[in-house]
């Protein structure tokens, strides 16, 4: 699951971006000013930050500089109303990985976030397989012993994380961080319920093992 931080001081646009990216199965958090963005960046590991340049509290340029200085693999897509070439060059010189001029099509923004996310993570294995379970990450098709398995976005994301762990244990907290956004209650039983539904859909024999006080793994 790709985690995205949208930093935009226009609430209507920020919420529209969150909804559009969430439909693409991204886990999306929102900050409405540069100060809030830096606070969230300090707590969470984001794959992509969609960053408005003209922000209150802390200017977008300074937020971008802080992200670059953090030396994480986070990619920055900078948004601006300025269409001049000089403005775009300045943004890229600060450390932004890509630039998009307002107004823009949501489809283009989504495509650019997808492209930046591919640069953030190691090259994904096209097909994940384990004991008759097969996940094609390009088509998002899931089968077990040749039988198609229909999953929700969250169920699919949890399954992919468990497959990537290759038998390692993932705690509920780790799955919350990787699959859900910041609005999820950290004390929720959402992970347990999602795993329960995933087990049921995958069928027998059961593949997902629960380790008390530790987490989950594929057996």
Automatic annotation (TrEMBL):
One of its GO terms (biological process) is regulation of DNA-templated transcription. Keywords: DNA-binding, Phosphoprotein. The keyword Phosphoprotein applies. Residues 125-219 bind DNA. GO terms for molecular function: phosphorelay response regulator activity; transcription cis-regulatory region binding. InterPro entries: CheY-like_superfamily (IPR011006), OmpR/PhoB-type_DNA-bd (IPR001867), Sig_transdc_resp-reg_receiver (IPR001789), WalR-like (IPR039420), WH-like_DNA-bd_sf (IPR036388). GO terms for cellular component: cytosol; protein-DNA complex. It comes from Frankia nepalensis. Residues 125-219 form the OmpR/PhoB-type domain. PANTHER family: REGULATOR OF RPOS, TRANSCRIPTIONAL REGULATORY PROTEIN CUTR. The modification 4-aspartylphosphate is found at residue 52. This is Response regulator transcription factor. The keyword DNA-binding applies. Residues 3-117 form the Response regulatory domain.
């Amino acid at each position: 699951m790709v985690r995205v931080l949208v930093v935009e001081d226009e609430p209507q646009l920020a919420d529209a971006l969150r909804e559009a990216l969430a439909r693409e199965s991204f886990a999306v958090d929102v900050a409405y000013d540069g100060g809030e963005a830096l606070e969230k960046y300090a707590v969470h590991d984001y794959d992509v930050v969609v960053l408005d340049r003209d922000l209150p509290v802390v200017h977008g340029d300074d937020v971008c500089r802080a992200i670059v200085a953090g030396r994480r693999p986070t990619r920055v897509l900078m948004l601006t109303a300025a269409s001049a070439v000089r403005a775009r060059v300045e943004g890229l010189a600060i450390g932004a990985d890509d630039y998009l001029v307002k107004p823009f099509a949501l489809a283009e923004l989504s495509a650019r976030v997808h492209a930046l996310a591919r640069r953030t993570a190691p090259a994904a294995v096209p097909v994940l397989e384990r004991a008759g379970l097969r996940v094609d990450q390009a088509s998002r098709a899931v089968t077990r012993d040749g039988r198609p398995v229909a999953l929700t976005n969250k169920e699919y994301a949890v399954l992919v994380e468990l497959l990537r762990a290759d038998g390692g244990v993932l705690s509920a907290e780790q799955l919350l961080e990787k699959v859900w956004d910041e609005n999820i209650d950290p004390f929720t039983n959402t992970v347990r319920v999602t795993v329960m539904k995933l087990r049921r859909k995958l069928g027998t024999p059961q593949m997902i093992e629960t380790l008390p006080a530790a987490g989950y793994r594929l057996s």
